[in-house]
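retry 2 of 3: previous attempt timed out while embedding uridine-5'-diphosphate. Reduced batch size to 1 and resubmitted. Inputs unchanged:
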Amino acid sequence: DLSRTNVVDLLNILVTDKPVKFEWIKRRIEQMWPHWQAAFASMKERIDLQNTVQKRILIHIGVLSNEDKMHFAKEATKGGPLGELVQWSDVIASLYMLGHDVTVSADLATVQRVLGSFAKAKKQCPQEMPDNIDLVFIDYIGLRELSVKIGTLLPQFKCKLRIVDSFGTEAQFNYNLFKENIPGGSMGAYGRHNLDLRQYQTMFPHSPDNSFLGFVVNTSPPLKAAKRTRRKAKALVYGKHVGMWQNLQNKGFLEVINKYVEVHATVGGGSESEVARHLPNFVINHGVVSQAEVHKLLNESMVFVGLGFPYEGPAPLEAIANGCFFINPKFNPPRNRLNTPFFKNKPTLRQHPYCEEFIGSPHVYTIDVNVLSEVEEAMKEIVLKEDFCQHKPWPPIKALVPVQGEAGRSCKEVCLSKGMVCEPEFFSKINSRDSLTENGYPCNTSAVEEVPSLIAPGYRQNPPACIVQTQALLFSCTGTSPSTMRLCPCRKFKKGQVALCEEC
Ligand code: UDP
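retry 2 succeeded.
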């Protein structure tokens, strides 16, 4: 079924005992639907889906099934955790759009209905393959519910599990006979399921042992065609529950940031006055808002500021995708299950610092926010980054790959033909007789013309001359001349992210 274009059909299958459980997920799916449709349409152009097999997939969301204890749904609009709901929304939307036969469960009765025949068959004939379901997407909480209901899970069933596990699970927490001491002691509620580690699907690429599932990061709201507000000097703080502010030892760094930009936040978790008590008075609080509104705020902001907790969820990536710099509080020593209660029961030794290691400069400033001079330094750099009054070199020079062009071709074409882009920042670095010589032109013997030119630096064959630029404003990636071979400042780029380079 490749015609799943109607989001209402999907929303209609999201039914459970309490409507509130699916509310936030439904809103996200609805809001993202145009993106899913566009992505699916482009995928269909590239991949022939005619022969894909429709799978019967059960998606059981344990955190919602245990709503009475966990309150994920109730707190979704009040500053509670949303990362898991983001991920579940995207799992549901993508599997549905791919045409699979999807049942989504947020209560035990539904799982029992779907797996009931299997559970019965298992009693009568324990070796029987469960044949009414091909795959089960589930979380740790749901897996525990399931094990309680159907007892020990047979290998034929276990291999069908895909555990949506935001933190990831390391081998010593998965293998139930692991004998050596685990730093920090027991693994609490998680682990010991003896699955293939790749059955754990993580929110970030924490460890290659697990599978990286991820989530969708989108920018300004779809359809309401982005009337891009001029970027005001604003910061948005990463902390949507008042508790995240209450426990802050030192709010001094926010004062430093406030010297440079307006400080905004979306904080809930109490009445307006309760929340206000824990926020510095200069913070402009919008209360917890919809995702579309978060994106609008991010779009208007220059900086997204971490408080230290939450550590890393979807929000910093959305911020970076919307053009913000991210101030990422550094912990020394890094937080792990030995020194931080939050990580105590997680089936991993430590969470991987994704923004710091995988994104890094210039988008992410991982700094000790208690050292105010570091904050000051970061803010100065951020405010200057897009400032054409004071030149700050970027990208770093190590990304430069000088390339000799053929006569008549622009640097845009020359770089592209080598799988790179022309980087204007680097023109000044290769604009000299020495540089032309080093890169293969006979410029130690030819005449040198120093002129304002659209095709400099370059080498003209007839009459032979090396051309060196005298007017920086004329440096051009697109300039061409039939008689001149250009020297081009190319750099590699990230696939699908042409503004970023591989090593910078
Ligand atoms: N978000 C929201 N309203 C707000 C603040 C955030 O809808 O007022 C969204 C945000 O756009 C992101 C999601 O909450 O998609 C979860 O982000 P976060 O990184 O805070 O993850 P969590 O810590 O909740 O798991």
